[in-house]
Amino acid sequence: GCVRCHQEIGAEWEGSLHRRAWQNGYFPRAYAAEPTPFCRKCHAPSADPGAEPPLAARELGVGCTVCHVVPAGITGVNAQPARPGGHAVIGDARLATEAACGGCHDFPFPGPPELALGPMQDTLGEHARSAAAATPCQGCHMLAVPSRGGGTHRSHAFRVQGDPAMLARAVVVKAAELDAGALRLSLAPGAIGHAFPTGDLYR
Question: Which residues share a beta bridge with 172?
Answer without folding.
Answer: 188
